[in-house]
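S., here's the first fold you wanted:
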Amino acid sequence: MFIILFSVIPVLKAENESSFPEINVYINVREDGNATVYYNITGFGATKFWIFLPKNETIIGRSSKGSFSIVNHTSSYYFYYNSTINVTPGDDNTYSFQLSYEFPFASIMADYNGWFMSPALITEPDIEMTVYIKIPNLKRITLEEPKHIGTKNGYLVYVLQGQLYSQLGGRIIIEYDMTVPVPVKTYSKSFNDTLVKIEYPIYYLSFAEKTVNIAGEAIKYYIDIFSIKPRELEFRFYLPKQAMGGIGTLGFVRGSDINVGGEGPIQLNLALMRYAPGYHETTILHEMVHMFLGKLNVEANDNVRWFHEGMAEYISLHVAEELGIKVEDILNNLDKLSKTLYDKLGGKIGFIENWPDGNDILEPQAYLASYYIIKTLADQYGGINYIKRVCKAIKDRGGVRSTQDVVDVLSEAAGKDLSGLFSKWGFHNISPWNKTEEKEQQKQQNENSEEKEQETNILDTARGTIITIVVVLAGAAAFIVYILNNRIIREVELALSAPIVPEEK
């Protein structure tokens, strides 16, 4: 279609003495972050051109010279049409018209920070678009792509042109500091004796309510699967800044929070408000699995992360189906892609035993391989009931911290030694599962726990007081280290829930 269109356009110019239009785009962002987008389009001669326009917003058109019509075609972008504009000039052979539409959540804000992403400003590569963006309470730009070329009447000015820019998504992204903060509130609701709460900037109450209700409706399924009933489940929103993974990282749970028993909040990207239906829901359900695994003492480390991700994807999609969320396409794609990867690697998917953290090529494959393992075993040994047995085995064991531990609990749930299968998949140094040894280890752990409990009970008051002081001081020190550690790793730790399949940008 592109080749035909580009070959026809020069002929149209010659026959009709027309030119490509001049397009000026004005994006006026309001205090709440919503915006109105205006296209001022001028030129001369009869012509036609294509441009992206949103599917779900009402397009208002007004002509001051000549006339125009819009014919919408599907595009590769979920929210946009590839629209053909047919233009007829007025008596003086010129035309001038305006298109406008509302653009929700153009800017997303939290505290003193803001994040702006334009609609897809895509048109024919030969057409130059000048874009004017006005953002209220803008104090300082901290990052932008592309760079603005100047300012005019309070607008930041950008010039967009070329096929490469269209292929990159036609977006203008601005991270900025604000002169005033956005107030924060907390919304909470109880489900099955579990309090679900979220802290949110005041403009996003409906999104906060939706988040709490999705998590709350899912709680009963997670309690059934994990045999754990949390007292509280907390969520927080964060901005899709580049330092936080941008729009590609939909949510995460800090590894440090998982390793202290699944405490701490689940972090959700506020950009989910602008994603296609289903992403918000499945992201919540995925992250909840990580939190519940943390409560079972499934450690977050490079040797066990594949288990975290495989379980999170399998369980979240199962619960999504139970909730009536349409995930059939996701499941079909995952099954197809994971099987394709398995065949491509000749079944050698054990590279995930040491997670390829930050590797842009291997990491997406690692998610697929992780899902393939959990899905394959669940299909063979009883579906979600097998997953329940796995969780029980983990709980009885007191947690897992290595791939060997994971293979042992998977074997116990299956009632069969799976070490040979994992060796076949390319995992290294996997020892056979010994059922008798497993029971002895559990017995020893129980005896040790009983001995510790007896020792605690015979402490006298004075000694107890001393120990209490020491514990408090040690706890304070540990808490300080924990806070400092979080401040450091917050910027460098990859989310535990990167999408299984990277999104088109």
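And the second, which I think is the more interesting of the pair:
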Amino acid sequence: MASKRSNSIENEARLPFTGKNYAIFAIAMLLIVLGFVFLVTGDITISPFLLVLGYCILIPASLFAMDKPAEAENNETN
């Protein structure tokens, strides 16, 4: 009985991140690093754009991006 409860707690505690989330986050990190590289080299036109894109758009997008449930995909194809 206790093992069933501990398994359900473990399933609830997991974050629902998929490869899609990690890919968006990796792109955000790449853009942030590029933004700082451009900032160090003195280019103040593209670096703020890359930094804002990485920090304010892509990182939150990587946290909130969700895959469609399997049931919704099956209903759309029918």
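Why I say that: The longest helix spans residues 19-41. Residues 16-66 form one domain.

Talk tomorrow,
H.
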